[in-house]
Amino acid sequence: MKILAVFSAAALGENPVLVQGLGLDPLLQPTAEGGQDGVSSAPPASPGSIRLWTAGVVIVTTLSSALAWFLQNRFLEPAGLGYLGIVAFTVIILALARLLGWLGRRRGLDRSDGLGLEAVTTNSLVLGLALQNVRGLLLKALMGGLAAGLGWVFVGQILAGFRDRFQGPQVPPPLRGLPATLIALGLMALTFTGFRGMLQVLFFR
Amino acid sequence: MQVPDSTRGENRSLPVPTLVLGLFPSLVVARTLESGVWVGLALALVLVGSVAVAWPLRAWIPRSARTPVALTAMATWAGVADMALKAYQPEIAASFGIYVLVMAANPLILVWAGGQEANRQTAGGLLAGTLRLGAWLLAGPALVGALRELLGTGSLSLFGRALLSAGGNWSGVGVIQQIPGAFLLPGLLLAAGGAWRHRRAGSGDDSTATVQTEGGRLP
User: Fold this and answer.
1) 3-class SS at B163?
2) Of A11, A179, B164, B201, whose CB count within 10 A is highest?
3) A78 — contact with chain B (CB < 8 Å)?
4) What Rg value do the Cα atoms of chain A yield, rounded?
5) pLDDT of A24-77, one tens digit each?
6) How far is residue A137's CA from residue A183's CA, in Å, rounded to a whole number?
7) How far is the C-alpha of B101 from the C-alpha of B74, rounded, in Å?
């Protein structure tokens, strides 16, 4: 039951995007840059690449949370070097992202030009979760990383659902694209804060 | 905002939506003018510090390693900013939580500090671009923080000095100072800017103006 509570809290009540504002850049960067508008020279990513990148983010959030916990609690804190955690976590995330990108290219899964998977998996979501999950138990860090990663995917799926509609002629021109998306995120954030109360009643009463 | 886009090898401006997006997640903790100023100062410190480390080393670092080096430099400077805030502004640092350290993954700073082309520019061009981007990182959170404070509480203060008060019975809209406000306010500001530009561009079919104000077509 406690694991379920931690999982629900990390994915819904403490959703990394809507309640903490983490991991917005990989979700909204295509919205900000546009795909074929002349602003971005990169071709739109294929659905396969997007699925791979999404899985990559969840894997990196989970593994980096666990590794950061281990490094902080077993090596840095005992040696009085806790303040070096941010640099160590960044190196861990970079190494994991590079390893995943290498595996993706070797298996022929990541066919994007340039960094692809590595660029997507190095963001504020992964770093923020690694910093948050160093307190408590290792299992909690692992579950927290996984659940928050899935919470990020959940919001990404919702955004993908209404992204195209926000470009249609029914939306007033000044609101099209990022402005409408940010306003929608704000309204969704209001809704998600309600999950906190619901989870309190369900699990912590 | 004329910040050269170093990632594409061309000296073109980043679109306004990308610049706004680059302020996240730091905007979440810019709830008042004062917190916005401190967030902006921390962001500017991370930018200037990481450029100062990454640029002189560019000749010795292979192209493929420039982004990791820039990220490590950003992490170091984010740590410095966090420790400085904890030492001199402990209350502000406590309210910021992990958000100062998360600046180590700021996409705008990474574009500039780790950009491939930025490293080949002249020192003067790099300095001017860094100052322009630093000014944006300083002013953006301060502006959003000021508006959130004004709309959220009905008054505005900086370093303990009252600057403005709505007066009357206006008690503010509390939600603006919470997380939803960090999304709603920039969205509304972008929309207002877009409406203003759209009006300036005229009511004709001006697709260029539409792209630049709204962020363009979504993939």
Assistant:
1) strand
2) A179
3) no
4) 18
5) 888 886 655 543 333 334 445 666 667 777 888 889 899 999 999 999 999 999
6) 37
7) 9
- Pick from A36, A87, A124: which is nearest to B79 by CB? A87
Chain B partners within 8 Å of A84 (Cβ): 79
Strands (E), B100-158: 155-158
Q: How many helices (H) and strands (E) does chain B have?
A: 8, 2
B24-56 pLDDT per residue, tens: 888 899 999 999 999 999 999 999 999 988 888
Residue type, A4: L
Q: How far is CA B177 from CA A164, B25, B33, in A?
A: 29, 14, 11
Whole-complex ipTM: 0.83
By CB atoms closer than 10 A (0-12, 13-18, 19+), residue A162 is exposed
- B219: Cβ contacts below 8 Å, ≥ 6 apart: A30, A34, A35, A36, A44, A45
φ, ψ of residue A166 to 5 degrees: the values are -75, -5
Looking at residue A31, what is its pLDDT? 59
Phi, psi for B61 (deg, rounded to 5) = -110, 125
Q: How far apart are alpha carbons B137 and B121 in whole angstroms?
A: 21
State the Cα–Cα distance between residues A39 and A36, nearest whole angstrom: 7
Name the residue among A22, A98, A167 with its Cβ closest to that of B218: A167
Residues 6+ apart with CB under 8 A from A169: none
Q: Does the pLDDT value for residue B87 go beyond 90? A: yes
| Confidence label for B90 from pLDDT (cuts 50, 70 and 90) | very high
pTM beyond 0.90: no
Evaluate if residue A146 carries a pLDDT over 80. Answer: yes
CA distance to A5, B17, B37, B63, per residue, from A24 (Å): 25, 13, 22, 27
Number of residues that make up chain A? 205
Task: Please answer yes or no on whether A124 and B25 come within 8 Å at the CB atom.
Answer: yes
Q: Per residue in B196-214, pLDDT tens?
A: 988 887 755 444 444 344 4
DSSP string, A160-182: HHHHTGGGSTTS-GGGTTHHHHH
**CA of B40 vs chain A CAs: smallest distance (Å):** 17
